[in-house]
């Protein structure tokens, strides 16, 4: 699945890049309904859960849902304008105002987590009860650890969930953070503070990123893959106190802003090149995947 932000649509493709389905008409809008009549506005991150594809529809300040069996699109929450949601149970999804949701992830318990860059916060949504609450973030643009609202994020742009941990990619903070979804404890794994950036490998205390835009958990190893957009590089962080490394590639990336890892491959949204790339982890070979009919 590819979020084609500039064309306001989401594509379902086979591994060779052939487009199988298009969700959204291709023009900007905020319309639910059949896939060919629905409309998105600058969709970004995607998350598949059971038979649904969840979309962080940033331009509409909303989370949208695609039923992968029928192609029907509906709105999980979002008012079409920027705002801050009132915590609690809601009856009308379009009365929940978010502020530029850029990432969405669903943890093993089925709870949804939403990163909003407009207010630098992480929200949690119980899909069954339709209840939203603030998980962490004071709203200040900063890299501060703590519990709940005592912590601060600097443009959280990507999420990855595993067990009771939520990994957060802080773009402006050039940092990787973790949030305990049960306690709300926020911990900085990598990063020194807002606008403290660079390109340094090695121990976490000395390593540097520059405006990373995406992360993905490796299903086969305790490794977090990082799209280090400001450095046009693909990086890895070994979890559990390990080091940061830069992956050697034959071709330089161009502001990569999306990642997913599956079946021994890393799929990269090479955004400034308007391309999708596939890295074979074992062979170290990077291939262009042509997206088309």
Brief account:
By secondary structure, the protein is mainly β. It is 0% helix and 45% strand. It has strands at residues 2-4, 9-13, 19-23, 43-49, 52-57, 62-67, 73-78, 88-89, 101-106, 112-116, 121-126, 131-136, 146-147, 156-162, 165-170, 175-180, 185-190, 214-217, 223-228, 233-238, 244-246, 256-262, 265-270, 275-280, 285-289.
Features:
293 residues, mainly beta, five-stranded antiparallel sheet, globular
Count of extended strands = 25
SSE-based structural type: mainly beta
What is the count of DSSP helices, taking H or I runs of 4+ residues? 0
Query: In one word, what is the shape?
Result: globular
Which percent range fits the helix content? under 10%
What's the SSE pattern? Answer: EEEEEEEEEEEEEEEEEEEEEEEEE
How much β-strand is present in the residues? Answer: over 45%
Major pleated sheet: 5 strands, antiparallel
Nearest-integer average pLDDT: 96
Radius of gyration: 18 Å
Low-confidence stretches: none
Distance between the termini: 14 Å
Arrangement of strands in the largest sheet: 8-12-11-10-9
Would you give an account of this structure?
By secondary structure, the chain is mostly beta strands. It is 0% helix and 45% strand. It contains no helices and 25 strands. It has strands spanning 2-4, 9-13, 19-23, 43-49, 52-57, 62-67, 73-78, 88-89, 101-106, 112-116, 121-126, 131-136, 146-147, 156-162, 165-170, 175-180, 185-190, 214-217, 223-228, 233-238, 244-246, 256-262, 265-270, 275-280, 285-289. The strands form 6 sheets. The protein has a 5-stranded antiparallel sheet, with no helix packed on it. Strands 13-17-16-15-14 form a 5-stranded antiparallel sheet, with no helix packed on it. A 4-stranded antiparallel sheet has the order 4-5-6-7, with no helix packed on it. Strand 23 and strand 24 form a beta hairpin. The radius of gyration is 18 Å and the shape is globular. 42% of the residues are buried. The mean pLDDT is 96.
């Amino acid at each position: 699945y590819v979020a084609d932000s500039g064309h306001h649509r989401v594509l379902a493709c086979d591994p060779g890049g052939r487009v199988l389905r298009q969700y959204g008409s291709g023009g900007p809008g905020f319309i639910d309904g059949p896939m060919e009549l629905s409309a998105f506005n600058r969709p970004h991150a995607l998350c598949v859960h059971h038979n649904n594809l969840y979309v962080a529809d940033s331009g509409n300040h909303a989370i949208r849902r695609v039923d992968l069996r029928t192609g029907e699109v509906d709105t999980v929450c979002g008012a079409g304008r920027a705002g801050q949601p009132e915590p609690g149970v809601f009856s009308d999804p379009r009365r929940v105002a978010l502020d530029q949701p850029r990432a969405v992830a669903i943890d093993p318990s089925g709870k949804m987590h939403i990163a909003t860059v407009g207010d630098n916060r992480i929200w949690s949504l119980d899909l069954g009860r339709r209840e939203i609450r603030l998980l962490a973030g004071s709203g200040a643009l900063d890299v501060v650890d703590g519990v709940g609202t005592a912590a601060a994020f600097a443009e959280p742009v990507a999420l990855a969930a595993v067990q009771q941990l939520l990994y957060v990619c802080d773009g402006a903070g050039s940092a990787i953070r973790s949030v305990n979804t049960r306690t709300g404890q926020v911990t900085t794994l990598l990063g020194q503070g807002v606008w403290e950036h660079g390109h340094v490998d090695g121990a976490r205390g000395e390593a540097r990123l520059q405006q990373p835009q995406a992360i993905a958990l490796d299903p086969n190893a305790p490794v977090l893959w990082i799209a280090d957009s400001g450095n046009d590089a693909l990086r890895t962080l070994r979890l559990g106190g390990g080091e940061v490394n830069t992956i050697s590639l034959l071709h330089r990336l161009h502001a990569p802003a999306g990642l997913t890892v599956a079946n021994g491959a890393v799929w990269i949204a090479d955004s400034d090149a308007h391309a999708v790339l596939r890295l074979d982890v074992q062979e170290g070979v990077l291939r262009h995947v042509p997206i088309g009919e």
